[in-house]
Specification:
- By secondary structure, this protein is mainly alpha-helical.
- The protein has a single domain (13-78), classed as 434 Repressor (Amino-terminal Domain), CATH 1.10.260.
- It has five helices and no strands.
- It has helices spanning 13-24, 29-36, 40-49, 54-64, 68-73.
- The termini are far apart.
- 22% of the residues are buried.
């Protein structure tokens, strides 16, 4: 039985932004993975640790309509990729 006191690793700031962008678009990790050619576990790792290839970040940023600058640095003036 799992303990209710399991400590989870905190998300990276970049992972937190990726999670927020996905949730704002009401997409699951699996749906995003299908759109960008990654597995659900790779999307989860991306949201937790911010670790994945640059090419994958670019594809995810395109799906979310966000700039890489916003995803990486959180610059509020660069949230839109337009």
């Amino acid at each position: 039985m799992r303990s209710a006191n399991i400590k989870r690793k905190p998300r990276s700031p970049m992972g937190e932004r990726l999670l927020t962008l996905r949730q704002q678009r009401r997409l699951t990790q699996e749906q995003v993975g299908l759109l960008v050619g990654l597995s659900q576990s790779q999307i989860q790792r991306m949201e937790t640790y911010g670790s994945v290839s640059l090419a994958a970040f670019i594809r995810v940023a395109d799906v979310y309509g966000a700039s890489l600058d916003f995803i990486v640095h959180g610059s509020p003036n660069s949230q839109s990729a337009a």
